[in-house]
Amino acid sequence: MRLSAVALTSILAALTSALPIDNSAYHDSKTAAQIARTLLHRESLTALATNTGDNVPVSFVEYYADCHDDGQPVMLMIDISSSNKNIENGSKASLSIKVGDHQLHDHVDPHYPGQVLSSTAGSPRVSLRGKFVPVDVSEDISLRECFSKRHHDSVFWFPGSKVHSSHWTKFEVEEVYFVGGFGDRAYIGEIPVEEYLNATLLNTEEYASLFHKQSSECR
Predict the structure, then answer these.
(1) Of 96, 154, 158, 199, which residue is most buried, by most CB within 10 angstroms?
(2) What does the UniProt keyword field contain (predicted)?
(3) Which pLDDT value is given to residue 163?
(4) Alpha-carbon distance 45 to 150, whole Å?
(5) With pLDDT > 70 as the criterion, what percentage of the chain qualifies?
(6) Does residue 98 surpass a pLDDT of 50?
(7) Residues facing 46 on adjacent strands
(8) pLDDT interval class at 2 (50, 70, 90)
(9) What is the pLDDT of residue 215?
(10) What's the angle, vertex CA 23, arms to CA 18 and CA 27, rounded to 5?
């Protein structure tokens, strides 16, 4: 049985209206910038998208860490990886990060304003567009310490390893597109890059009561 467009629209509207009312709803880019920065800081896995020489888009999961606490992730790039080769050949790059993008051993706070708890579609995700820039070699020791806290196995391919030739690199953010969840309760759209870079992390205590209310309503 096929459903008409009108019927499908009605069903989707009914499902949306049945979701718990979220008192932490927001529709401003300033709050979105805070959430995007917090999301990147909490998580540690990203889908890195590049283009091949034939201009075919490819995407692979990569490790990262917000080692400089500035919303511009540090990554450990393997020299022979296809992503690195594409970048060396002039490919543009973007990163995408969503709630849950972290190692299994990590305990990461999954709560955000405007979120529908336990719904990937109703939770924040962000797309960052920019370029990779070199990291000063003097930072090697501090980056090893930072990175290994988030990615225990990464120590085996740190720069100088016999396993792989690798190097530290930083993703310099130039554009930010944010989807906070469902549009009736969260911001969706571009975030000015300066607003993103200057944003502070969320004060979890400030939203604690709202998070508790969300959890209770979603049970």
Answers:
(1) 199
(2) Signal
(3) 87
(4) 10
(5) 83
(6) yes
(7) 62
(8) low
(9) 47
(10) 95
Tokens of 31: 């709050």
Angle at the Cα of 66 from the Cα atoms of 65 and 69, rounded to 5 degrees:
160
- Cα–Cα distances (Å) from 212 to 60, 113, 142, 204, 209, in that order, read 35, 11, 36, 12, 5
Distance, CA of 99 to CA of 106 (rounded, Å): 13
Amino acid 5: pLDDT: 58
Structure tokens at 172: 């310099």
Q: Which single residue is written with the structure tokens 């972290």? A: 102
Neighbours of 206 (CB within 10 A): 10
Q: Which two tokens stand for residue 29?
A: 């880019």
Q: How far apart are CA 125 and CA 209, in angstroms?
A: 23
Identify residue 126 by its one-letter amino acid code.
V
- Per DSSP, the residues of 187-209 read -EEEE-HHHHHHPPPP-HHHHHH
As a residue count, the chain comes to 219
